[in-house]
Amino acid sequence: MSASDMHFSFTLQGAALQARASGLLWWADQRALCVSDLHLGKSLRPAKHGGAALPPFEVIDTLQRLGAEIAALNPETVICLGDSFDDATASTELPRTIETHLHRLQDGRRWIWIEGNHDPGPVALPGQLMHSLALGPLVFRHIATPTGSGEVSGHYHPKATVPTRARAITRPCFLLDHARVILPAFGTYTGGLASSHPALAGLMAPGALAVLTGPRALALPMPR
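^ thats the sequence. predicted structure below, dont judge the formating
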């Protein structure tokens, strides 16, 4: 299997895109890599609410996987589609080693932080903070809109289940139709919302696809 066979290529409003098996979206013509819902700092939340502090292993794992894709593709622009941090203060509370890791990933690239519902407002790291980004025929935002066109978003952490002879397999997935693509959550500790949930079934047009992540991207009719 070649590297290109591992991923799913499609077109949205004339833009040639690739749903990567890792859960990232690649726009080769723009040298733009898009990732959603990193939720960095999620391991800090229990301690904030009186629970035990957890080591930030999820942050390390998330950034290592992101770094592997950046190394493979060498994007000029990285677009983080919101909820990059698990709450509004998480970007100020990351360990220094994690900050340094992020700075290395950002070095020499345009880095866009799209505001999410978990992390509105300023980010204590380099990069541009935006509510949304229009780039060519596409619009990048955190939450999909019912009338959006050429829309790239995240927020819902979509997942889909595929029955096999041995057992059912559930994986994070992209959802895409003629108007939009919704990215899976990339953060290690993030959960998922089934594609059959009314919030997703109501957004996606008939004939929408689910592209499951994993060892290779697997496209199938979106389970409803």
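The chain has a mean pLDDT of 90.
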